[in-house]
User: Which sequence fits this backbone?
């Protein structure tokens, strides 16, 4: 069902804490599956304060690179800026996923 959402233009964000296991095994496994299948568009955090709940973006990026490669991990970060600029990120993720198929 995630694929159908993406086909409709919905962007998928991976929470950095989910990918690093902070929120438990089930959240980590779900995040890893989205990364493996290249269904995520961005890694971000829900941290509201830099002093509490450090977002661990670096650890999440390292894990994403282990799972899906450096190019995809870099795209997950650069897409954040692309979203802010109003650029299309769906086609960039799709193109990279198709290269790996």
Assistant:
């Amino acid at each position: 069902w995630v694929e159908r959402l993406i086909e409709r233009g919905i962007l998928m964000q991976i929470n950095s804490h989910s990918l690093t296991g902070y929120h438990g095994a089930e959240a980590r496994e779900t995040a890893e599956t989205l990364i493996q299948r290249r269904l995520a568009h961005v890694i971000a955090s829900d941290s509201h304060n830099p002093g509490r709940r450090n977002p661990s973006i670096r650890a999440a990026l390292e894990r994403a690179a282990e799972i899906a490669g450096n190019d995809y991990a870099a795209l997950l970060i650069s897409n954040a800026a692309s979203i802010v600029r109003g650029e299309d990120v769906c086609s960039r993720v799709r193109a990279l996923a198709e290269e790996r198929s």
